[in-house]
Amino acid sequence: MATERLSFAGFLLFASSLFSRVATGEPPKIQPFTFPMQVELGTQTSVYCGLSKGTRPIEFSWKKNERTLKSVDGKIHILTPGGSTVLEIQRLGSSDIGNYTCIARNSAGEDAYTSSLVVEGKVSEEGAVSI
């Protein structure tokens, strides 16, 4: 009889621990990412930000140099398929150089990871790109 009470008490403790984990969820953890090393002016690049863990739903956002980044038609595209996000930058220019931060957030917390984009090439006085 004492063993049954102990087993039932152990089960209740386990169930309450499991319920609290499910109720609050697991905070997201971003997998480290980098931009390609040799990106040229006038080309395009993309970077993938995925999670190693985290309870859904997850909300993603991007920042460039600490400022919120939004999709801009024909220039910047932010795609969020399920548990990841992809940042695409087209027609790279010198103004695109900077630190890009992926932020993942859910009810249990948030995580962020930053990577630097470096662009190679130079712009002529007429504004033409030379590589």
How does this model look, in words?
InterPro entries: Cell_Adh-Cytoskel_Orgn, Ig-like_dom, Ig-like_dom_sf, Ig-like_fold, Ig_I-set, Ig_sub, Ig_sub2. This is Leucine-rich repeat and immunoglobulin-like domain-containing nogo receptor-interacting protein 2 isoform X2. The structure is a single chain. This protein has 131 residues and is α+β, with helices and mostly antiparallel strands. The protein has a single domain (29-130), classed as Immunoglobulins (Immunoglobulin-like), CATH 2.60.40. The protein contains 1 helix and 12 strands, in the order αββββββββββββ. The protein has one helix spanning 2-24; strands spanning 29-30, 39-40, 45-53, 59-64, 67-69, 76-79, 84-89, 98-106, 109-117, 119-120, 122-123, 129-130. Strands 1-3-7-6 form a 4-stranded antiparallel sheet, with no helix packed on it.
